């Protein structure tokens, strides 16, 4: 079932989105050579605690997962596409890091992701990050009243393919509101003019995940969570929570 949000609910979701933005900023500031992924999770936890917010990630266990997720952020490094579990790994010079974070505040949820490099970046990584950000921007621009989910999907796919990147099959964005994952599903590939209609009050988490190797295949680590490229190529992930409104797309997870 798809829930259309009221304008008042969008305003509360915007506050949850601000918490997510602050948490992501704190993680990025903390990320440096020698810092562990667990320490990045601690930085995000501190922001959530200060805001009186909960985490939709912590304890989350979908049907595919062997264990509940043990952290408030996903930390995916280099060839990890998404869902990486924070652990004792210490960041190295040149690592490409993707951070996904959510927050629950006053019964509503925000969800966003960023990618960045640590230390001296590889030129190819910067191109990948730019392409993934461009794909997100294109998806958001297509999130217009009167359109359809396929318009968003097609916009993302067009940018990804032009950049020569692959995207993990079966994974994409989703509706969001009272829960982190709601209907409808938002594929990162699709045909324009198809799919669920976009109307004022629909809120979507739009999240392209691009893989530099150009393939759409992925594998899952033994932890049951982390998705990795099958060819060892690098991956990047960007996401925003976006409300469809009569005034245009409203990004709820900006600072």
From TrEMBL:
Gene3D superfamilies: Creatinase/methionine aminopeptidase superfamily. InterPro entries: Creatinase/aminopeptidase-like (IPR036005), Pept_M24 (IPR000994), Pept_M24_MAP (IPR001714), Pept_M24A_MAP1 (IPR002467). Residues 12-246 form the Peptidase M24 domain. The keyword Cytoplasm does not apply. A divalent metal cation 2 binds at residues 111, 174, 207, 239. SUPFAM superfamilies: Creatinase/aminopeptidase (SSF55920). A divalent metal cation 1 binds at residues 100, 111, 239. It is an enzyme of class 3 (hydrolase). Binds 2 divalent metal cations per subunit. Has a high-affinity and a low affinity metal-binding site. The true nature of the physiological cofactor is under debate. The enzyme is active with cobalt, zinc, manganese or divalent iron ions. Most likely, methionine aminopeptidases function as mononuclear Fe(2+)-metalloproteases under physiological conditions, and the catalytically relevant metal-binding site has been assigned to the histidine-containing high-affinity site. Its EC number is 3.4.11.18. Substrate binds at residues 83, 181. Keywords: Aminopeptidase, Hydrolase, Metal-binding, Protease. One of its GO terms (biological process) is proteolysis. Belongs to the peptidase M24A family. Methionine aminopeptidase type 1 subfamily. NCBIfam families: met_pdase_I. Removes the N-terminal methionine from nascent proteins. The N-terminal methionine is often cleaved when the second residue in the primary sequence is small and uncharged (Met-Ala-, Cys, Gly, Pro, Ser, Thr, or Val). Requires deformylation of the N(alpha)-formylated initiator methionine before it can be hydrolyzed. Monomer. This is Methionine aminopeptidase. It comes from Streptomyces corchorusii. The gene is map.
């Amino acid at each position: 079932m798809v829930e259309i949000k009221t304008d008042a609910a969008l305003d509360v979701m915007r506050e949850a989105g601000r918490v997510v933005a602050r948490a992501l900023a704190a993680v990025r500031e903390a990320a440096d050579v020698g810092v562990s992924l667990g320490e990045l999770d601690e930085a995000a936890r501190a922001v959530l605690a200060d805001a009186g917010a909960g985490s939709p990630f912590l304890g989350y266990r979908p049907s595919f997962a062997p264990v509940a997720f043990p952290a408030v952020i996903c930390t995916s490094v280099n060839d990890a596409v998404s869902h990486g579990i924070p652990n004792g790994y210490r960041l190295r010079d040149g690592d490409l890091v993707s951070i996904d974070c959510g927050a629950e505040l006053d019964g509503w949820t925000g969800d966003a992701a960023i990618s960045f490099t640590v230390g001296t970046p590889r030129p190819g990584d910067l191109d990948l990050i730019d392409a993934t950000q461009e794909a997100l921007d294109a998806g958001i621009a297509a999130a217009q009243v009167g359109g359809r989910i396929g318009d968003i999907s097609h916009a993302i796919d067009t940018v990804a393919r032009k950049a020569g990147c692959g995207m993990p099959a079966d994974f994409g964005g989703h509706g969001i509101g009272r829960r982190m994952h709601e209907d409808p599903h938002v594929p990162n590939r699709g045909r324009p003019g198809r799919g669920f209609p976009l109307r004022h009050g629909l809120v979507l988490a739009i999240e392209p995940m691009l893989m530099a190797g150009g393939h759409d295949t992925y594998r899952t680590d033994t932890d049951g969570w982390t998705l990795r490229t099958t060819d060892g190529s690098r991956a990047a992930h960007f996401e925003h929570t976006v409300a469809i409104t009569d005034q245009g797309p409203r990004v709820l997870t900006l600072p």
